[in-house]
Design goal:
The structure holds 2 protein chains of 2 kinds. By secondary structure, chain A is mostly helical. Chain A contains 13 helices and no strands. Chain A has helices at residues 2-18, 24-29, 35-45, 51-63, 77-112, 117-131, 134-148, 160-189, 193-200, 205-243, 248-257, 261-289, 291-298. Chain B is an all-alpha fold. In chain B, 73% of the residues lie in helices and 0% in strands. The relative contact order of chain B is 0.17. Classes of the chains: A mainly alpha, B mainly alpha. At the A-B interface, α1, α6, α7, α8 and α10 of A face α4, α5, α8, α9 and α10 of B.
């Protein structure tokens, strides 16, 4: 299903940004541009050709990783995307690590002491994490850790310290979701017979939790992490804007504001295709770690 | 994504009560904004720009000297309008398309589900950003973009439910008695799938409110001078050092609203689980 989905995503992005209501040349150049400038831009964007022609060229170019050139800088879009993508990947991975580092111990703690104060506090905190929008959380974290306490830099790049606040902003929502998932999955697992057997054989509480219960929780966790990675990628648009992080999300907002449509198209396509590939990788990893699916295949 | 947890009866009752109270409060504030707001939301006083909260302006003033409390109260209108409209439009569209796909099966089902797969291949708010970039900013375009994206979740849910319900004996019997397809759907199928759609709609409303605020934060949503909570947070971001109240209070409004709606969704789902058992 990968090829049809990729084709569909590419088609939708093309349609969205090629069949704009109004004249994109007018929008990009403004009212003061000369007819010659307009005609030149129209030609360079291929807008003087039929939509079907443009669509076929778009797909052909895409196969060669040619996403066109920026209207404002003239640089190839693929070069711009390549320049900004690593920063987004680093931020997304840091957010993922943050989310997992919070969710695993918090979820296990809540599951091991159901209906205790620890459980209630963890659950409450996870609900708060899910409900806080990252465009608000980011400025709040800046206010606390960068302005009041002066522990971390406000924004920009320069070292690992610069990644902490953006990763927390992006990752805390996901941490809330994963905490609830770990808690519910581990809670269910703790009632299984094999856990009772392990306890009867003298296994310590920590061993039962980390070795037996958590292992079972990892399978659904992996599936949700894959789905949530897409949210992280989309959330990077806002987080990067808040922290002036030089990733593809911030670039997207910048080029939307300057109406550099070839770059907008390239950025959105790259994020969407990355999401499709991450989902595919998640499906494959899910099949690999899930013994039931693995054995079903062998059978 | 929301994960169900062990839920005892009193807890779902509390969740539903909290959610309904939040929704009622939001509706009341939006409807009675002209009465509740102490000042017109666009009334400027440049001499008092960024003024800290005091008795006459309990939540302070923004960079143009406008009353933050009044703008938050009027901002509830935008959030409620987007939340309700986007949910009604996307749920209506999703139920219609999902029911048609589930009932018709065959090639209709195949192509509808491929379209759903493609739309769901875009992460979260990215497609809304692309659509508002293409359509232009503004309240109507935000609602349109969120509805054109949001129907997919409902369609997938309704299709699966319709397929399951259609195989039941009472539907087969009604079909054998010659009941027309629209009547069959209306009388025998759709009432049975109302509950899961309602749960999805509750979470959908919270999602639409956050999405609108996010788009407005990025400058792609509701445009000035109409007050939107997301745009207010964005405007206040530049003054974090001198006027943190500009970011703090609109953010609390969004947070409380989303928390309440999520609690309502969780509560209704837990109630349905309990009833189902």
């Amino acid at each position: 299903m990968l090829a049809p989905t990729v084709l569909g995503v590419a088609t939708l992005v093309f349609l969205l940004l090629s069949l704009l209501p109004g004249d994109p040349v007018e929008v990009m150049l403004g009212e003061t541009a000369t007819p010659a400038d307009r005609a030149a831009l129209r030609r360079s964007l291929g807008l003087d050709r039929a939509v079907s022609d443009r669509y076929l060229s778009f797909l052909g170019d895409l196969l060669r990783f040619d996403l066109g050139n920026s209207i404002h800088t003239g640089r190839p879009v693929s070069e711009l995307v390549g320049l900004h993508f690593p920063a987004t990947a680093a931020l997304t991975l840091a957010a993922l690590v943050t989310a997992i580092a919070i969710a695993l111990p918090a979820g296990l703690l809540a599951a091991s002491r159901p209906h205790s104060h620890a459980d209630r506090i963890t659950l409450g905190a996870s609900l708060v994490g899910v409900a806080i929008p990252n465009f608000w959380l980011g400025p709040m974290l800046i206010m606390l850790f960068a302005i009041d306490l002066r522990w971390l830099p406000v924004s920009g790049t320069g070292g690992a310290a610069h990644l902490v606040l953006p990763a927390m902003t992006l990752g805390l929502g996901m941490a809330g979701i994963l905490t609830r998932l770990v808690r519910s999955t581990v809670s269910e697992t703790l009632h299984e017979d094999y856990i009772r057997t392990a306890r009867a054989k003298g296994a310590s509480n920590a061993l039962v939790l980390w070795r037996h219960a958590l292992r079972n929780a990892l399978v659904p966790l992996l599936s949700v992490i894959g789905l949530q990675l897409g949210s992280l990628l989309a959330g990077s648009v806002i987080t990067e804007t808040i922290f002036a992080w030089p990733g593809i999300g911030r670039l997207t907002v910048q080029v939307i504001n300057t109406r550099d449509y070839p770059v907008v198209q390239g950025c959105i396509l790259t994020i969407a295709l990355t999401y499709v590939l991450v989902n595919l990788a998640t499906d494959l990893a899910y099949a690999w770690v899930n013994p039931r699916m693995r054995h079903a295949r062998v059978d | 994504m929301h994960v169900s947890t062990d839920t005892s009866a009193p807890r779902w009752r509390r969740q539903i009560a909290a959610g309904v109270a939040t929704l009622a409060l939001l509706g009341l504030v939006a409807a009675a904004a002209p009465v509740l707001a102490p000042y017109p939301p666009a009334q400027q006083d440049l001499a008092a720009d960024l003024a800290a909260p005091d008795i006459s302006h309990p939540l302070g003033r923004d960079k143009l000297g406008r009353d933050v409390l009044s703008r938050i109260i009027y901002g509830a209108r935008v959030s409620l309008a987007v939340g309700l409209s986007a949910v009604l439009l996307s749920a209506g569209l999703g139920v219609l398309i999902g029911a048609a796909a589930g009932f018709a099966g065959g090639s209709v089902d195949f192509w509808v589900m491929r379209l759903v797969d493609i739309l769901l291949a875009f992460p979260g708010i990215l497609l809304a950003i692309a659509m508002t970039a293409a359509l232009g900013p503004g309240l109507t375009n935000v609602i349109l973009a969120l509805s054109l994206i949001g129907w997919t979740g409902y369609a997938r849910l309704v299709r699966a439910e319709v397929m399951a319900v259609s195989a039941r004996d009472h539907v087969e019997a009604a079909r054998a008695l010659g009941v027309s397809t629209p009547a069959l759907l209306r009388r025998h199928v759709l009432p049975l799938i109302a509950a899961p759609v309602m749960v999805q709609a509750t979470f959908g409303m919270a999602g639409a409110i956050v999405a609108e605020a996010s788009l407005s934060f990025l400058g792609l949503g509701v445009q000035a001078p109409t007050p939107s909570w997301g745009a207010m947070v964005n405007e206040g971001r530049s003054f974090l050092l001198v006027a943190p109240h500009l970011v703090l209070y609109p953010g609390i409004a969004i947070f409380v609203t989303v928390l309440g709606l999520n609690a309502l969704g969780d509560g209704v789902r837990a109630y349905l689980d309990v009833r189902g058992r």
